[in-house]
Amino acid sequence: YLNNYDGLNIIISVLSSLCNSGLSLISSDNNLSLYFILITTIGGSLVSTTSGIKFTRIYILIKTASSEIMKLISPNSIINKNIFNSEKKITDEYLKISFLIFISFFISLFILSGILIVDNIDFEESFKLSILTITNTTNSAMYGVEKMDFSNLLTSSKLSLIIFMIIGKIELISIFLIIKKIFFKD
Fold first, then answer.
1. Are 33 and 142 in contact (CB under 8 A)?
2. For each of the chain's 186 residues, which pLDDT tens digit applies?
3. CA–CA gap between residue 53 and residue 18 (Å, rounded)
4. How far apart (Å, rounded) are the C-alpha atoms in residues 29 and 118?
5. What is the DSSP code (8-state) at residue 154?
6. Which of 46, 86, 102, 158 keeps 20 to 30 A from 135, CA to CA?
7. For every residue of 7-73, which 3-state class applies, written as one string?
8. Which residues make beta-bridge pairs with 82?
């Protein structure tokens, strides 16, 4: 399978989606664009500055949810709250931030997708373009939206894409923390 380079192209596309770069060696007529979009939403590594939900936040949410279920099943059990078996522990602060970023990502996604639907872009393309915008990923053939003509978009859609790309890069939690620091001085 790797001799004809199809497998290698898919591996490169998966790594490209995971790193949020959007580089592609495969054509758009594949049925893998949804998988690449899902990988892009997880995107970014542990210490990267790329956008996306990031694997560590998903790990924190899943580990906390499973520990809460274990508490219900066996209240006297000891639960390991270490992150990746390191010295750092999952605190309530990490959990709140991870959950807030997770929710804000999806709220931003649906708001931007709604704005793009008003511009007569069909739901699938607006949803894909919203994910790519919020995760700061290049629009490429591997996501199935390579025929998007940005010059024909309304000015409001272009401005929304710019604003949400900035929000995706600095993450909505940073904006909340800045607003809290300015208006709610302790």
1. yes
2. 445 667 777 788 888 777 777 777 776 556 777 788 888 777 754 445 555 667 677 777 788 888 888 778 877 767 777 777 777 777 777 777 778 777 888 888 899 999 999 988 888 888 888 888 888 777 777 777 777 788 888 899 899 998 888 877 776 667 777 777 788 775
3. 11
4. 27
5. -
6. 86
7. HHHHHHHHHHHHCCCCCCCCCCCCCCHHHHHHHHHHCCCCCCCCCCCCHHHHHHHHHHHHHHHHHHH
8. 89
Cα separation, 54 vs 49, whole angstroms: 10
Contact in structure between 44 and 28 (CB atoms under 8 Å): no
**Which amino acid, one-letter code, is at 131?**
I
